[in-house]
Amino acid sequence: MVDDPQQLEDLAAHAHEAHVVVVGGGIAGLVAALECAKVGVRVTVLEASDRLGGLVRAADLAGLTLDVGAESFATRGGHVRALVEEVRLGDDIVTPAPAGAWIAGLPGAAPLPKGGVLGIPASPFAEDVRAVIGWNGAWRAYLDRLRPVLTIGQERSLGRLVRGRMGERVLERLVAPVTSGVYSADPDDIDVELAAPGLSAALTRAGSLSGAVLQLARARTEAPGSAVEGVRGGMSRLVDALAARLADFGVEIRLDTPVEAIEGVSDAAKDSPRWRIRTAEGDLSSDQVVVAASESAARALLRPLIGLADRPGPAPRVHIVTLVLDSPELDAAPRGSGVLTVPGTHRAKALTHATAKWAWLSEIVRAQHPHRHVVRVSFGSQAEPPATDGLDLEAATAMAVTEAATLLGVALDGSQVVGSDIARYEQTLPGAAIGQRDAAAAVRARLAELTGIVAVGAWLSGTGLAQVVPDARAQALAVRRAALFGAPPTAD
Ligand SMILES: Cc1cc2nc3c(=O)[nH]c(=O)nc-3n(C[C@H](O)[C@H](O)[C@H](O)COP(=O)(O)OP(=O)(O)OC[C@H]3O[C@@H](n4cnc5c(N)ncnc54)[C@H](O)[C@@H]3O)c2cc1C
């Protein structure tokens, strides 16, 4: 702790002499920039596209500003809430309506049973569970109670664990829709301990998977609050608020500026810039670099520095078609907050009935149009390219309307649509994918051998704001420490 006034003056002067360049203006880059800028470090953010926010993105549709990328955040750890409060949006934090989601493709549709963990039921014979997996599925799942826990041992793959203990029906109809909808991933590729921390230990204690789920679910209901929260007006407000804070701190933001290369300055004298950042508009010099670009761009930029391989497999591609439509049949929210599908049964992967999920949105929309709704239909996952591939907006909208009608169980046609949008994304594998954490640690270990460069973002922290935000913060703390005190950045 520095408290000598002269030392503080020197520190402030030194802080502004140091220059940090952040490559990429998604949430990870903006959070890293804020951490550095708020102690007086000079920061420049270089963003390839014409807007900030990356996968947190809004579109203006039928007079509404709507999230067409991330639309909520997990409350886990309280990190995103803390950030939202820091940028003065704390009073606008909202929780979704408690309506819950449905599963479609059973055949037919049924509510997602309550009290489960990643779709795994606590009680196979509960009526809402039987409505999804039938009596046969329930009896097979019940065998979990009778089997010794050691026949499975420590199983790392969520899919193999559920299949072995509770059978295919539970896996296909309950767990796969959740992992596909939430992680865009197959349950076989999900690491149990990362996706459901504590489940393996509870399995050993309880002696069965359903018993373990019951223990975890009990612990969860004792914790206050909901699993996700949002921001009144949409998550894109977080991006705008972060940009405003960065402007307050004098951060320079350059849009439409893709970084083409990052080069170490090999003959850099002590206290002179270590890095040259190449862009089409010219080069920048910096003492520290935070690489916050999307995965494929980040890999391309880092490859010459640390010999990074290509990503291990194709990235899951996801398309979100947002529909604003007039439909009195949707007023009663026939499928709660939305629908997850059993993989392979529908062209859409999932649907969110946004006006049923978010009261603030419904209030705005219905103030002028009593039967107007916002529905987001998602296509594509790790295993399957989006069915909307190659379609223009008109054709994708038509497909989304057909899928929405089936999933919501109401008649809909194109004439009811008053606005639509398609957003196309390339995602990274979820942090809970088997091997993902080790791969990220290996990248970080190689980067730690260099001085003055760190990498942040979902491809290293895991997808989801609750993972991206604290990770970017931790990495940026190391960068700013180095900028202030000259120590090399080590996030540990
Ligand atoms: C459809 C969808 C819905 C989602 N919903 C949720 C949700 O509800 N809740 C949740 O928590 N998470 C959600 N996620 C995940 C979450 O949005 C991401 O994990 C998170 O936003 C990733 O942030 P990031 O900064 O790591 O990456 P990005 O947002 O991808 O940002 C990277 C930035 O780098 C820029 N860039 C790329 N190349 C260069 C270059 N060469 N030079 C300079 N800049 C470059 C890009 O343009 C981009 O702005 C969702 C994701 C998707 C795709």
From TrEMBL:
Keyword Oxidoreductase tagged: yes
Cellular compartments annotated: Cytoplasm
Substrates-to-products reaction catalysed: coproporphyrinogen III + 3 O2 = coproporphyrin III + 3 H2O2
Enzyme Commission (EC) number: 1.3.3.15
Domain Amine oxidase as annotated: residue spans: 27-308
Entries under PANTHER family matching the protein: PROTOPORPHYRINOGEN OXIDASE
Pathway where it operates: Porphyrin-containing compound metabolism; protoheme biosynthesis
Protein name in UniProt: Coproporphyrinogen III oxidase
Function statement: Involved in coproporphyrin-dependent heme b biosynthesis. Catalyzes the oxidation of coproporphyrinogen III to coproporphyrin III.
This protein's record includes keyword Oxidoreductase: yes
Similarity annotation: Belongs to the protoporphyrinogen/coproporphyrinogen oxidase family. Coproporphyrinogen III oxidase subfamily.
InterPro entries recorded: Amino_oxidase (IPR002937), FAD/NAD-bd_sf (IPR036188), Protoporphyrinogen_oxidase (IPR004572), Zeta_carotene_desat/Oxidored (IPR050464)
Organism the protein comes from: Microbacterium deminutum
Cofactor(s) this protein cannot do without: FAD
Family matches, as Pfam families: Amino_oxidase (PF01593)
Keywords assigned by UniProt, alphabetized: Cytoplasm, FAD, Flavoprotein, Heme biosynthesis, Oxidoreductase
SUPFAM superfamilies: FAD-linked reductases, C-terminal domain, FAD/NAD(P)-binding domain
